[in-house]
Amino acid sequence: MPPPYVRKCQHHHRVFDVVIKRSRRKTLAIHVLRSLQVEIRAPLQCAWRDIDAFLNIRLDWVVNALDTLARLPPVRLAQYTEGEMHDYLGVGQELLLVRGNPQQVILGPGQLLVRCPAPADPRQVERCLARFWRQRALQVFEMRLLEGYRRFAEIPLPGKTLGKLTVRKMTARWGSCSRSGDICLNSVLVQKPLAAIDMVIAHELCHLYHFSHSAGFYQLLGTVMPDWQDHEALLNMPTWRPQD
Q: Is 78 inside a domain boundary?
C-alpha cells in the first residue's frame, strides 16, 4: 500500500491536516477521529480531483465534528475493575465482579454483574463483557434493523433486498453494507444510545440505494432521518473503551 499523504486544509476558523490513505477499497470515506485527526480513505486509483471534490462538500461537517470533539473530555481506558462504569444503550452501568462458574453477565438496575473464575483478571472480565455485548447486540440490532427498514417502506429499492445481519467487534467503523445487501454492525455500538444505533442502521440501509457516499446518498439519508447529524454526534460522546 502507498504511504499516507498529508494535506493542509483551511476552512472558516479551522486549519487542520487531512491524512489521505489509499487502499484496495471501492469507495471514498471520511473520518474525524477522537484524536482530532481527519482521514480520507480512498481507492488506489482514485483521482485527486475526485478526492478534493469529496472533501470540499464535507468541509462544514468536518469543522463541526472537530469543534464537537475538541469540547469533549478525554477518553479514559477501561480497567475492568469493581465499580467501574460501562455504558449499555447509552446508560452507565456499574461493574460488580464475583467469582464463579459458569461465566455470565447479568444486567440489573444500573449494574452489570460479571461472574467468572478470576474476577481480578481484567482480561477475563473484558472477554466476558465482549461476549455479553455481542449477545445483546444481536438482539437489539435485529429489532432496530426491522424498525429502520420501515423508514424506507415507500422508497422503491432497485433490484436489491436486505441480506443477512452479522455482528462483530470492529476497530475502525460502526457498520458496513456489502453490495449483496448484507449488513455488519459493530458489537460495541450496543453501548451507544438507541438514536445513535438507528443512525448507523439508516446509514447502512442507504447503501442499498447508493453504494458510495455520494450526494444522492446523503440526500436519501436526510430524507429518512432529517436529524441524522444530531444522532451521529452521539457516537462521539465519551465512553469507556478497551485498552489498546
A: no
